[in-house]
Design brief:
343 residues, alpha/beta, Arc Repressor Mutant, subunit A, D-Maltodextrin-Binding Protein, domain 2, 3 domains, 5-stranded mixed beta sheet, 14 helices, 12 strands, 17% strand, globular
Length: 343
């Protein structure tokens, strides 16, 4: 090492920032950043917090001084986070979500619960998996307090990574998320569901994707894993993917449209279709599809995967998935028997 370098006085910008954050940063300043990001206007922030705009401007400058970077810039759309601001806001959302979760867990413990779990669910997960998860949490001694949130797999994964959920049951995820841990627990078989009249007409011959594409399709929203899967099925059959009449993952919405629109058609997991089997208004086409849906998986994060409560929940969901898998062949018979008898 050159003799003229004074190691004791060498400047470390990252260490200086860390010292500033530890010694000066306050949680209310993080809450201010989140409010500014939500409203994108200092005047609106001032009105909501019942403070003067100069006071909000001064508070923002103080926070930017602590972080050593400009966090927001002005544009025609109002305040917009800079690159540094986006980085700080990502951590801010996680810090505040963890703080809110901690407060809720402590409240649950004071009420005699074993703790609190925030569980994400996709609507197309079979009821038996969901019931296995809830039964494990609610019937232990003492029981857990549980909060559930429904969404697409992409939405649930984003909430997990933002520390807004502890775990989730959804489709397998193939995006870039190094902190995500997922375990495939159950493979569902897809089926085509449509109005009873269409079942009688379409159920007599082999599946013709060109004819099916002319019906009124209910598909998942764009840029979701399931929409990409379904589009690939049409493309593989040499057919342009249809423009859907409805884009949703809501089972209630799908069921309502299948009941009311005679030309509506959708792809559902067979076990979910069995659970929802309608009284003559829609039914499952009898032809088996020769592919599986992406597996239903249990998700958590690397930071939480070793937590005993989550490990126990994962094992309970996996066991329920194995039980369902063993019954899969038999489960196919019930919904299509009615369809065949109607042909």
């Amino acid at each position: 090492m050159p003799e003229h370098v004074n190691v004791s006085k060498a400047r470390d910008p990252a260490a200086e920032r860390q010292h500033a954050l530890l010694s000066r940063l306050k949680l209310r300043q993080l809450a201010l950043l989140r409010t500014i990001d939500r409203l994108r206007s200092l005047s609106r922030v001032a009105a909501e917090l019942q403070l003067s705009q100069p006071a909000i401007t001064k508070a923002l400058r103080e926070v930017e001084d602590i972080f050593g970077s400009q966090l927001f810039g002005r544009s025609s759309r109002g305040l917009v986070p800079t690159a540094a601001g986006e980085a700080v806001l990502a951590y801010t959302r996680r810090w505040l979500a963890e703080l809110e979760s901690t407060a809720q867990v402590l409240t649950s413990l004071e009420a005699g619960k074993a703790g609190r779990i925030r569980l994400g669910l996709t609507q197309q997960a079979p009821q038996r998996l969901i019931l296995a998860a809830l039964d494990h949490l609610l019937h232990r001694s003492p029981p857990m307090a549980v909060m559930t949130r429904e969404g697409t797999t992409d939405e649930l994964v984003a909430a997990l990574l933002a520390r807004e959920l502890d775990c989730a049951i959804g489709r397998s995820y193939d995006g870039d998320a190094p902190d995500l841990v997922q375990l495939a627990v159950y493979r569902q078989e897809p089926c085509l569901v449509t109005g009873a009249r269409q079942v009688r007409r379409l159920g007599r011959a082999a599946i013709d994707w060109k004819k099916l594409a002319q019906l009124d399709w209910i598909l998942p929203p764009p840029n979701t894993p399931m929409r990409r899967t379904y589009n690939a099925i049409f493309v593989g059959a040499g057919v342009q993917p249809p423009e859907p009449m409805l884009e949703t993952t809501s089972i209630r919405s799908i069921e309502a449209v299948l009941r009311s629109e005679p030309n509506a058609i959708a792809i559902l997991p067979l076990d979910v279709a069995s659970e929802l089997q309608s009284a003559g208004q829609w039914a499952v086409l009898p032809q088996r599809l020769k592919w599986d849906l992406p597996p239903v998986s249990f998700f958590t994060t690397r930071a939480l995967e070793g937590q005993p409560t989550l490990a126990g929940l994962r094992d309970a969901v996996a066991e329920a998935g194995r039980s369902l898998q063993n019954q899969r062949t038999a489960s196919y018979i019930d919904p299509t028997a009615a369809a065949r008898s109607a042909l």
